[in-house]
Amino acid sequence: MSSINVMLFGASRSGKTSILSSMLTVSRTYLSKDYNLLLQDKTDYTDGKTTLNDSKLGMENLLKKDWSPEPRLGDLTGSQQLSEYRFQLTITSVQGVDPLTVNFIDIPGENFKQIHPAYNQVCDLVKDCQILMVAVDTPSLLYTDNMQDAYYDEALNCVEELRDMVSLWGMNRGKEALRLLVFVPIKCEYWVQKNRMDKVYQLIEKVYQDQIAITENFSKVKIMTMPVETIGGLLFDHYTEPDRMKILAYDPDKKVFQKDMEDNRNLVGDGDRDCIRCEMKSANIVTLGKTGLPYCLTGKDRLVDVREIPRPPYCFREGYPIPYAWFKPVGEYKPDNCDQLLLEIMKFMVQDAAAIANQKVRTLISASNSGSLFLFDCLWKIIRFILKTIGILGSFSQETQLVAMCRAISKMKEDKRFLGKYKVIYNSLDPDGSDFKF
Ligand SMILES: Nc1nc2c(ncn2[C@@H]2O[C@H](COP(=O)(O)OP(=O)(O)O)[C@@H](O)[C@H]2O)c(=O)[nH]1
Ligand SMILES: [Mg+2]
After folding, report:
1. Residue of 128, 131, 178 whose CA lies nearest to 429
2. C-alpha pair distances (Å), 52 with each of 84, 104, 263, 289
3. Which end of the chain is more exposed for a tag (fewer CB within 10 A), N or C?
4. How confident is the model at residue 320 (pLDDT cuts 50, 70, 90)?
């Protein structure tokens, strides 16, 4: 079970990288303290991709109250390159076993479209993945429901693109291989607080019903919805209708603060100007997108309709709908339920490894509870040298890993930190209720 591949699926800026960042941030300390599990970010950053720490800083930035306590617009720009993030999990209580690796393939939303040059590469990558994680932008999901327009449904929730991915998913691993499909609604704090998550669960199962149906072709698959709060202190506030959504192009002679602008390119066709998205309040008063503060147009300031801007990510045209969602900072950076997602990945790793090694998870759990781990550890120390020499180190190491992981997971399931806030849609990993259950 030394490595597992996870494909992150979702529209651009839906929050794929943020999920990883918050998962790493919240779990690291207590996994090591309470469970002897060392979780490390072993990503190769030499290609210059966003670090998970930068992603965390970006999220904390969205909460900055010194800007203003007002609602502000959600970000527009998602990652632009196909990236791989790598988590390494080392079981520190047992010496000499290999660490476990989880490879997350993080793909910019546009690459899932058939017309994109990277599309074939994406299709090849998903064939090797055991886990498919679908980041669902909750405000977009609710927006499309309000619009009652199949076109919006398709474009904002990437329904077609997911159909392709699910069809190719894990193909190189065979029909019998274990698979985990997780829908991860994010930016859902508002619906959690209003006790309206049932609606979100229900919409996910409706919007992606065909994709869920495709997975019935696989004999061992678990499908679930696992909402996570990647920030915690940021609540959805409202949407702006497209005709009130504008780009403010400042008077070129004005000195504009960084917090009051998003772009300084030639967006409006009369030279480089500092620009920002804003909501129109009256003919000359707008609300600025990054601070939510009112601004009165003066001098050569100009307002341009978003639909007139031809350049992504600002443009609003058919084929590129954007729900302009505003979020209000109400508290600290306090992610929630991200560790539950990590626990689910860990459970899956054990189930997958057990299935491959023809082991029963039930037996492993009782071995881990009865103290056999200690026996394994002693045995391990004594015969390690011999095993190395005769070259069967791999299989023994794997069994030790499995037992140690089962022990950690069984303990985690007792931990109040894991609140079980998720919904299992379908589970055939465990058709007879025995072998693959925790
Ligand atoms: N409003 C809001 N924004 C978030 C939340 N989590 C992340 N973001 C922001 O959403 C933007 C896009 O996130 P990112 O993870 O880069 O999306 P990706 O393109 O799918 O990888 C970033 O600016 C994040 O800071 C959240 O819970 N609420
Ligand atoms: Mg990303």
Report:
1. 178
2. 11, 12, 24, 25
3. C
4. low
Q: Where are the domains of the chain?
A: 3-231+334-354, 238-329
Strand positions, DSSP E, 232-271 = 232-240, 245-249
Ligand 1 site, residue 329, Cβ cutoff 6 A: no
Strand, helix or coil at 214?
helix
| CB of 287 closer than 8 Å to CB of 326 | no
pLDDT band at 39 (very low <50, low <70, confident <90, very high): very high
Length of the chain (residues) = 438
Question: How far apart are the CA of 376 and the centre of ligand 1, in A?
Answer: 44
Where is pLDDT greater, at 212 or 322? 212
Average pLDDT, the chain: 85
pTM: 0.90
Q: What is the mean pLDDT of residues 270-282?
A: 90
The domain defined by 3-231+334-354 folds into Rossmann fold (3.40.50)
Ligand 1 pocket member 16 (CB < 6 A) = yes
Rounded distance between C-alpha atoms, residue 437 and residue 148, angstroms: 40
Strands 423-427 and 221-225, how do they pair?
Answer: antiparallel
Q: Binning pLDDT at 50, 70 and 90, where does residue 330 land?
A: very high
Q: How many angstroms is it from 186 CA to the middle of ligand 2?
A: 14
